[in-house]
Design brief:
mainly alpha; about 0% strand
Length: about 325
């Protein structure tokens, strides 16, 4: 196992090198450039230099006068020295902005992920054990609705119903107007109230896929020979389903659970933007549309690291849930 993990880590480093190169190339080719916007803004000031002169000065200042390959290795060298640079959009160090925004997204992602597991897996099992019944059809309709609904449409419905019509929650933001005057407990509940609709959006739109996946795999396992043997031996239906069948259903589910690791930190770009939640998804969206290469590079490479780590965790968990799986 130790040799396998070391081998996978070394392979992941090689993959990460080329993924970062692709990301850097795409960032350099963005149609929107922060440098161009800043040069245009400064050139319009009274008595200022021309746009071309500002472009040359800012390009050299931000080391954008180099080619893509030399610029990538220069960026990589700074990365190894722990120098991630300053965000052009937010005018603070990249790490500082990342730290200020990622934990809001992590809390939202973690809550919605736990709710997704608690709702989708049991419903998927119930649908499989009651195949072709009214319960199965109802759960399948809910799952298909969750898969099909666009994020912006469902979020708009929630805001129309609970904010505009009922007035229960604020339309935008993470805190209310009187946040600074509340007690610590009041501030906690104020933030919690502002996260209800975003978390609901993430949960409802994510349970459909996992629910269908659980149902499909559970049906496959329930039709296996050893399940019929277990029933023939006189075991209770509860023990057959939750002791024998569900354990084998966990094997493919591990892939989804391990692959969900990046989602806990990546933020929900559309949801956070629609509800005005200052998370990492919201910050990355505005950084990309403004051509903020330092922050966008850090964010995308961070996601690549989490994706590779999630795949490694999935492979290791295979051996945990299935004793038959052993790594040579």
């Amino acid at each position: 196992m130790r040799k396998y993990i070391i081998k996978r880590i070394l392979l992941s480093i090689v993959i990460l090198f080329f993924v970062a190169l692709i990301i850097y190339t795409l960032m350099r080719c963005l149609p929107t450039s922060y440098i161009e916007a800043m040069a245009r803004q400064k050139s319009m000031q009274p008595g200022s230099k021309s746009f071309e002169e500002w472009m040359d000065q800012l390009t050299k200042m931000y080391n954008m006068d180099k080619g893509i390959i030399p610029g990538y290795f220069a960026w990589l060298g700074s990365l190894f020295r722990g120098e991630f640079g300053d965000s052009w959009k937010w005018t603070v160090p990249v790490v500082e902005k990342f730290h200020d925004t990622v934990w809001v997204s992590f809390v939202m992602g973690a809550i919605s992920f736990v709710l997704e597991l608690l709702i989708a897996i049991p419903l998927g099992i119930i649908a499989a054990t009651k195949q072709y019944s009214k319960t199965d059809y109802t759960i399948s309709i809910i799952a298909l609705a969750g898969i099909s609904l666009p994020t912006f449409f469902f979020a708009s419905l929630l805001k129309l119903l609970f904010s505009v019509k009922l007035g229960w929650f604020d339309l935008y933001g993470l805190v209310g107007r009187s946040y600074e005057y509340l007690t610590p407990m009041g501030q906690f509940w104020d933030k919690a109230a502002h996260l209800v609709m975003p978390v609901t959006t993430l949960t409802v739109l994510s349970i459909g896929g996992l629910m269908r996946y659980t149902r499909t795999n559970m049906l496959e396992v329930l039709n296996a020979d050893y399940i019929r043997t277990a029933r023939a031996k006189g075991l209770s239906e509860h023990k057959v389903i939750y002791t024998h069948a569900f354990r084998n259903t966990l094997i493919p589910l591990v892939t989804i659970i391990g692959g969900s690791l990046p989602g806990l930190f990546s933020g929900a770009l559309i949801t956070e933007t629609l509800f005005g939640i200052p998370g990492i998804g919201y910050a990355s969206y505005h950084s990309m549309i403004s051509g903020d290469i330092p922050f966008s590079m850090f964010y995308l490479v961070f996601l690549a690291v989490l994706t590779l780590a999630g795949n490694l965790i999935s492979d290791i968990l295979y051996a945990v849930v299935d004793p038959r799986v052993r790594i040579a």
